[in-house]
Amino acid sequence: MSNTPSLQAETYLPVMEHFYTLQGEGFHQGRAAYFVRLGGCDVGCVWCDVKESWAFEGHPLLSIETIVSHIKQSGAPIAVITGGEPLLHNLNELTTAIQKEGIQTNIETSGSSPLSGYWNWICLSPKKFKQPLPEILPLAHELKIIVYNKSDFEWGEQFAAQVSPTCKLYLQPEWSKAAQVTPLIVDYIKKNPKWELSLQIHKYINVP
C-alpha cells in the first residue's frame, strides 16, 4: 500500500471506458483484467493512441459503487486503473473498495502527479512531455519505457537507475514505429539483459 496525499476524496470519477479483456503489456501480459480508463491527462504524448481520454469533461461520471460492481460482476482477478493520467484523481476510495472485494489493484501511470490509492502493482511509464515525480520511482513494481527513437534507450536508463532493485524493466515499441524500433530493442536487450521486451499483444490479437 502507498502513503497517500491529503487530496479531496472522489466518490464519482469520469470514466471514458471500462471493459474486461486481457492485459496486453508488461509483467501481467496475457492475464485477464478489467480496465477502467479515467478521463483527464496533462501529459499529452504526441503518439498517444487514446487522445479521447485527455479531456476531463465529456465522460460519464460513475460512482465508485457502480465501477466496483462492474469489475466484480466480470469475475476479473485484476482491476487496472489507467487513463489519461489516472493520478490526476484521488484514487483512495476506489482502490479501497476494489480491494475489499478481493480484487487486485494495478495502475498504469506516467508518475507525473502525486500518488494516491492502494496498489498491488504500480506500472510506471515515464514520459518526456512531463517527467515522473522522484518519490514515485522507488515505489514502482514495473518500469515501462516506450521506445519511439534511439534516444529513448539512454533516456530510460536514467529511470532504471532510480527504481528499486526488484523493479521489472521493460522496453516497449511505440505502436506506429514498431517495425522500425523493435529490432533496435532486441539488439539493446541482448547487450543489456536486465531489460525485457514488452509488446502490445492485445493489438495483435484484436482485443481492447
Automatic annotation (TrEMBL):
Chain positions recorded as S-adenosyl-L-methionine binding sites: W47, C48, D49, G84, S125, P126, K127
Keyword terms: 4Fe-4S, Iron, Iron-sulfur, Lyase, Magnesium, Metal-binding, Queuosine biosynthesis, S-adenosyl-L-methionine
Cofactor note: Binds 1 [4Fe-4S] cluster. The cluster is coordinated with 3 cysteines and an exchangeable S-adenosyl-L-methionine.
Annotated residues for binding of [4Fe-4S] cluster: C41, C45, C48
Pathway stated in the Swiss-Prot or TrEMBL entry: Purine metabolism; 7-cyano-7-deazaguanine biosynthesis
Cofactor: [4Fe-4S] cluster; Mg(2+); S-adenosyl-L-methionine
Record field: catalytic activity: 6-carboxy-5,6,7,8-tetrahydropterin + H(+) = 7-carboxy-7-carbaguanine + NH4(+)
Top EC class of this enzyme: lyase
Domain of life assignment: Bacteria
Residue stretches making up the Radical SAM core domain: 28-208
E.C. no: 4.3.99.3
Described function: Catalyzes the complex heterocyclic radical-mediated conversion of 6-carboxy-5,6,7,8-tetrahydropterin (CPH4) to 7-carboxy-7-deazaguanine (CDG), a step common to the biosynthetic pathways of all 7-deazapurine-containing compounds.
Name of the featured protein: 7-carboxy-7-deazaguanine synthase
Organism: Niabella digestorum
Lineage, top ranks: Bacteria, Pseudomonadati, Bacteroidota, Chitinophagia, Chitinophagales
